[in-house]
Amino acid sequence: MSATSEGVKAATPPESRPVEAAPAPQIDAQALRRRFAGLLSVAGGLLLWELISRLLIDNALFLAAPSQIALAIYNLTITGQLGHHVAVSALEFVVGYVIGSALGVPLGLAMASSDTVKNACQPWVSGFYATPTVALAPLFILWFGIGIWSKVLVIVTLVLFPVTINTEAGLRTTSERLIEMLRSFGATPWQIFFKVKLPSAVPFILVGLKLGIGRALIGVVVAEFFGSRAGLGRLISQASDAFNMPELFAGVVVLAIAGIVMTAGFTWLEARLVPWTKD
Amino acid sequence: MTSKLAIARLSKSFGELEALRGISLDVERGEFISVVGPSGCGKTTFLRIVAGLEHATAGDVLLDGRAVKEPGRDRGFVFQNDSLLPWRTVFANAIIGREVAGPIGSDDRKRTMELLKLVGLEGFEHYHPRQLSGGMRQRVNLARALAIDPDILLMDEPFAALDAQTREIMQTELLRIWERGHKTVLFVTHQIDEAVFLSDRVLVFARRPGRVQAEVTIPLPRPRTLDMKRTPQFVALVDRIWRMIEDDVRAAALYENA
User: Maximum Cα–Cα distance for chain B, whole Å?
Assistant: First the structure.
């Protein structure tokens, strides 16, 4: 909307506003073409993969064709094995992710509110964020055994720090103009925190939580590689030991789908919770 | 009778830089006062001190005889940029000043709705700022300041970011609202014609340090209409103020380009 027709706009009833108008059909056609290009690309890629693994490589020890992977997923599903592996990994993921986020957000808030806390925590947070803490998985397994808690700890160390860093950045980048506006009404520091700082940090916190998803998935798989009784990482490493490529890829595909679905869910959540960041 | 707003020998320094020197001003209840001057003359700093957002180095600001030390609900500030919260609707933005003061009652809601109607935003209560034009956002900005029912409105170049046509419409709207409520207004602008059109008195600031160079009473009758801007009397007033600050404006322009 241009500001030029301000007077006219103010006189027009809201129902006929351009902002309420549905997107033009032309844009729909463009979106359709773009979506179609994506589908075509995926379908073409799968076909190429199928052809290469059947005609060029044709060695079941090195590569599995998409059709074989789909069959493996089907077989693992009906025997109940896949469900069990997914359930174990999902539990580790959820517990680790929730603990990591539940610690990361308050730690970020504390670091943004106090320079002393920030200076005390910054070297640790930056250090751990840069460290591939999955490398500590063998140590955690020594400490906590091959059950769920060694995996949870790996995931927590992977999720905590991006969430902390983004929460802190979000709070510190709150617009001074908005803070000043609230201050002009005599707002207390607490009111400024809850009415301006926290809401304007939400987009950043969501970015941190989104980053955490990918890192947590890596944590689940790698921690299970090092020692576990079940889980998708366990499935993959067992299949690898047995040169069972279809089952190996089955585990990878399930992980990929989980990652895509959760990231898409977050994008949807962002559009709902923080629509103002989209313009 | 004491003045609504009494400012005496107000000075402000930022370290070495002397921003304001010895500003004195008495404003009567219901008066519309504008402050004009070149960039860097401290007019915004002056307004921010009256708002309580900055502290004076020396001098007093008395509102109804009480010293101003911090922001308060007796003053409504209208910002140059709209400073609307993007996650709040128009209504929720307009009521935020009331919200800061304590729990909101149905009276507050009713009053805020009436104010949105007054500024021409009826039907837009549930819109978000990103769905509004610049002029409409400034209307919310104004409604938000009015919603706390302040004794005095402090306006910091509120129409500076708007295009010329929208600005003229907003000026007449502001006068219409002012004539209904008869709030005291302190209005900062760099547009001389805007100051003349709106005000009872225009305070002309000089720069380095910021100080009052002249005070011009505007004898134009009210209610004012846009066609008055073309009368010889109006043009003469604008011209007179322009000549006062011309040298300063040129100096400021040179300084800023250097």
Answer: 55
Read off the CATH number of the domain in which A244 is found: 1.10.3720.10
Determine contact, residues A155/A219, Cβ cutoff 8 Å: yes
Mutate to test the interface with A, among B131, B162, B186 (most CBs of A within 10 A): B131
Check B133 against A6: CB less than 8 A apart.
Answer: yes
Q: What is the pLDDT of residues B83-110, one digit of tens each?
A: 999 999 999 999 999 999 888 889 889 9
The 10s digit of each residue's pLDDT in B193-227 is 999 999 999 999 888 888 888 888 999 888 898 89
- Domain that residue A36 falls in: 11-58
Q: How would CATH label the architecture of B5-74+151-257?
A: 3-Layer(aba) Sandwich (3.40)
What ipTM was predicted for this assembly? 0.86
The minimal CB distance from A186 to the residues B72, B86, B166 is found for B72
Closest to B34 measured CA to CA, from B180, B168, B212: B212
Give residue limits of the domains in chain B: 5-74+151-257, 84-149
H/E stretch holding B184 reads strand B184-189
* Contact assignment for B131 to A177 by CB distance below 8 Å: no
